[in-house]
Amino acid sequence: MSERAKLSPPDWWATSIIEMKPGMIRYRGYAIEDLIGRVGFAEMVYLLTRGELPPKPAARLLEAALVAAVDHGPQAPSIAVARMAMTCGVGINNAMASAINTLGDVHGGAGEQCVALFGAIAARLPEGVRDAAAITTAVTAEIDALKARGIRHVPGYGHRFHPLDPRAPRLLALVDEAAAAGAVSGLYAAIGRTIEDVVAARRGGKRVPMNIDGATGVIFAELGFPPPLCRGLFVLSRSVGCLAHAWEESQSDYRNKGPIPRDQIWTYTGPGPRNVPE
């Protein structure tokens, strides 16, 4: 018999996240009635995922990251899918789930990739050394490593819609404020900016600005979130936009609304008309 099979029913789903019994709910030891009205949603996200309530500056940074990524319009696959699903007669939860399931490595996964990249660069720094020259050396080495693995695009930089993503500078400014106050190290903001500089130097001075994934990646890295958890944080944020768009679409009179207007037909690239063989 395996060790798992020997577990008692209470130990089968043992968890450090929630304690509950009739008349009592505690998250990480805190009574829910004490948390309600005293902590915000971002603080609850931090508490449940990290085990402790965050300091106020950390909570402010996390909330800023969550606010920044809530929506990017129907040109974003997740939002478009939420709206299309709603016109098919499904429930709002189905529409949200369908939308969230599109958030993968290409759409929605760059934040996780950024944090992993920032961490790899930080790991290249000699212990206790964080000067600009050392950071530039570490960034250069890691970008070379990406190139050697066949990775052409540095995650978190450039945007197919925005020449300069308006969300990134504001988020970085908040990180700078927190670093100046001693709330975060500022190391990952420095790494993020140095990546932009190194890439620009390799492109003859043409800059590829940091985008929302890079900027939120800086925040998540500064706050110490593990890379896989960062994708979940993006999902939490974008869920708000998916909910809003699904609800708005439910108020329209469209039924079975596809990705292109019905008076337009896709381009066919297959064989011309032909007869079925006898």
Describe, in plain words, how this protein is organized in 3D.
This protein is mainly alpha-helical. It has 2 domains: 16-54, no CATH class; 55-257, Cytochrome p450-Terp, domain 2 (Orthogonal Bundle), CATH 1.10.230.10. 53% of the residues lie in helices and 4% in strands. The protein contains 12 helices and 3 strands; from the N terminus they run αβββααααααααααα. It has helices spanning 9-12, 32-35, 41-50, 56-68, 77-86, 92-100, 110-124, 132-148, 167-180, 187-202, 212-222, 227-250; strands at 18-21, 24-27, 30-31. A 3-stranded antiparallel beta sheet has the order 1-2-3. A hairpin with a 2-residue loop joins β1 (18-21) and β2. It is globular.
Structural class: mainly alpha
Side by side, the strands of the main sheet go: 1-2-3
Q: What about the largest sheet?
A: 3 strands, antiparallel
Number of DSSP E strands: 3
Average of per-residue pLDDT values = 93
Number of helices: 12
User: If you compute it from the alpha carbons, what radius of gyration comes out, rounded to the nearest whole angstrom?
Assistant: 23 Å
Order of helices and strands: HEEEHHHHHHHHHHH
**CATH first level of the largest domain:** Mainly Alpha
Number of domains: 2
CATH A-level architecture of the largest domain: Orthogonal Bundle
Assembly state (oligomeric):
single chain
Q: Into which percentage range does the β-strand content fall?
A: under 5%
GO biological process, one term: tricarboxylic acid cycle
GO cellular component, one term: cytosol
Organism: Rhodoplanes serenus
Protein name: citrate synthase (unknown stereospecificity)
